[in-house]
């Protein structure tokens, strides 16, 4: 396997000292997923990564990036010693970007970053050697890690850039030096840190500060804050491409949403374009259109990209749909689970509700004659002083009246529970584990159930409990 970095290259990039010669084929920050040949990066987070260097080397790491020699290591242990490990990772990422001739796209936005990035992964797969950020590696260590992992012969790269506080995006964008940036949308998220939607828009727009000369900015049209995004792109000297509806450069002219797919038609600078997303939801069509515009800006063939888009499906926690059989002997006795439990803000909850409404319950097959649409909604975090009003407002979302039962999780969601009509109120609990214990009573064959909430409220535990219902009693007893 071709070396990703030799010891000499890594030492030069990080201004560090290699204790011996080595060659690495990958980079890891977690011993649980480390592969033989990786460089283990001893970051400090909840734990100090230096405490795991010995374990990493025992698992086959080619070397470790450290700020000092951990106690107990042999004298000949392969180490790359730097003044600061995070800075060393940033330097390695900067060097990885500098040596690459790849066309680079960077994506940010309040909602849909990871889904859109994954759409681009499948759209570009047949159009060159593609390097894409893993998972949600979009923060102060995720972006440099993605750049440091980029193979020398990459043709197209897609990065994701996120934020929690002001001033985070611009440095990461300057590190990434993208040729194309895309902003999916701007929504009330992390309001506690920004004070208002305009502040969020300014921070998202800062991604333009990293654009390479003659770069392209792909921006959503029709938002109240679109002018803020446009001004930032203009200041950066970017070519501006818009997506959305109406007068957008890439305009969605129709979106047909069925229980299984969304079929879109768009007006583009390259002519009319039809595309299909293998998941229901108008928001998926809009994100896909922005991704198609981004692919075209990278120089990809948009027709091939649209054809390959059909292989994409939402990942776990981001709208993934699956059938959970309640009887191992009768596969027709199932309910449908929509796992959208990774994050939540008012806009993404509305999008998740759209997924639930597009799905069709089945009647006459469960204990309850009528199949139901059920939502488990957890707290939306970091929304600032108006958080309670924003939670209560969810009760008035268009289509909410079509949901049969709403279970609410978390102290903030108590106001949502009280704002709902009595006929829709399921259970309110302060913490997710309280609902986990009643998973079997939440759902019946024929139902469709959406789970949505901010990561910190841990409604993913409810998702896991619902998935566990597919197992036989003997299997569940063995796990217990």
UniProtKB/TrEMBL annotation:
Entry's family note: Belongs to the MurCDEF family. MurF subfamily.
Highest taxon of the lineage: Bacteria
Compartments reported by the entry: Cytoplasm
Stretches assigned to the Mur ligase C-terminal domain: 336-454
Organism lineage string: Bacteria, Pseudomonadati, Pseudomonadota, Alphaproteobacteria, Rhodobacterales
Keyword terms: ATP-binding, Cell cycle, Cell division, Cell shape, Cell wall biogenesis/degradation, Cytoplasm, Ligase, Nucleotide-binding, Peptidoglycan synthesis
GO cellular component: cytoplasm
Limits of the Mur ligase central domain: 107-295
The Mur ligase N-terminal catalytic domain, residue ranges: 24-70
Function: Involved in cell wall formation. Catalyzes the final step in the synthesis of UDP-N-acetylmuramoyl-pentapeptide, the precursor of murein.
Biological processes annotated in GO: cell division; cell wall organization; peptidoglycan biosynthetic process; regulation of cell shape
Alphabetical list of InterPro entries matching this protein: Mur-like_cat_sf (IPR036565), Mur_ligase_C (IPR004101), Mur_ligase_C_dom_sf (IPR036615), Mur_ligase_cen (IPR013221), Mur_ligase_N (IPR000713), MurCDEF_CellWall_CoF430Synth (IPR051046), MurE/MurF_N (IPR035911), UDP-N-AcMur_synth (IPR005863)
Name of the protein described by the UniProt record: UDP-N-acetylmuramoyl-tripeptide--D-alanyl-D-alanine ligase
EC number: 6.3.2.10
Catalytic activity: D-alanyl-D-alanine + UDP-N-acetyl-alpha-D-muramoyl-L-alanyl-gamma-D-glutamyl-meso-2,6-diaminopimelate + ATP = UDP-N-acetyl-alpha-D-muramoyl-L-alanyl-gamma-D-glutamyl-meso-2,6-diaminopimeloyl-D-alanyl-D-alanine + ADP + phosphate + H(+)
Record: residues binding ATP: 109-115
């Amino acid at each position: 396997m071709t070396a990703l970095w030799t010891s000499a290259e890594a030492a030069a990039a990080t201004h560090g000292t290699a204790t011996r010669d080595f060659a690495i084929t990958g980079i890891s920050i977690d011993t649980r997923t480390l592969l033989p040949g990786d460089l283990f990066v001893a970051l400090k987070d909840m734990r100090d990564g230096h405490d795991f260097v010995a374990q990493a080397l025992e698992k086959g790491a080619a070397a470790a990036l450290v700020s000092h020699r951990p106690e107990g290591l042999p004298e000949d242990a392969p180490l790359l010693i730097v003044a600061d490990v995070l800075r060393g990772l940033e330097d390695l990422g900067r060097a990885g970007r500098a040596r690459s001739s790849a066309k680079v796209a960077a994506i940010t936005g309040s909602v849909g970053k990871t889904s859109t990035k994954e759409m681009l992964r499948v759209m570009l797969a047949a159009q060159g050697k593609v390097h894409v950020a893993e998972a949600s590696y979009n923060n102060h260590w995720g972006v440099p890690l993605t750049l440091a992992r980029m193979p020398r012969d990459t043709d197209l790269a897609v990065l994701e850039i996120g934020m929690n506080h002001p001033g985070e995006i611009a440095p990461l964008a300057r590190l990434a030096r993208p040729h194309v940036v895309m902003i999916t949308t701007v929504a009330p998220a992390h309001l506690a840190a920004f004070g208002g939607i305009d502040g969020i828009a300014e921070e998202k727009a800062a991604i333009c500060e990293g654009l390479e000369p003659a770069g392209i900015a792909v921006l959503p049209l029709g938002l109240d804050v679109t002018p803020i995004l446009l001004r930032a792109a203009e200041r950066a000297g970017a070519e501006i491409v818009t997506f959305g509806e109406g007068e957008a450069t890439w305009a969605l002219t129709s979106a047909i949403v069925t229980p299984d797919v969304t079929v879109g038609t768009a007006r583009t600078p390259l002519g009319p374009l039809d595309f299909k997303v293998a998941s229901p939801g108008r928001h998926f069509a809009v994100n896909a259109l922005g991704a198609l515009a981004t692919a075209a800006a990278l120089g990809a063939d948009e027709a091939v990209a649209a054809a390959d888009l059909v292989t994409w499906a939402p990942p776990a926690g981001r709208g993934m749909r699956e059938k959970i059989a309640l009887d191992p002997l009768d596969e027709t006795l199932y309910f449908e689970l929509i796992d959208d439990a990774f994050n939540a803000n008012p806009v993404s909850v509305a999008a998740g509700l759209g997924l639930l409404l597009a799905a069709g319950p089945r009647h006459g097959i469960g204990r309850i004659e009528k199949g139901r649409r059920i939502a488990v909604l957890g707290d939306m975090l970091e929304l600032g002083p108006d958080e309670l009003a924003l939670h209560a407002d969810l009760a008035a979302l268009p289509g909410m009246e079509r949901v049969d039962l709403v279970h609410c999780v978390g102290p903030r969601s108590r106001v949502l529970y009280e704002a709902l009509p009595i006929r829709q109120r399921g259970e309110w609990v302060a913490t997710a584990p309280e609902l986990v214990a009643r998973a079997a009573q939440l759902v019946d064959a024929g139902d469709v159930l959406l789970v949505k909430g901010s990561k910190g409220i841990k409604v993913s535990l409810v998702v896991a409990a619902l998935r566990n219902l597919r197992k036989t009693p003997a299997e569940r007893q063995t796990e217990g």
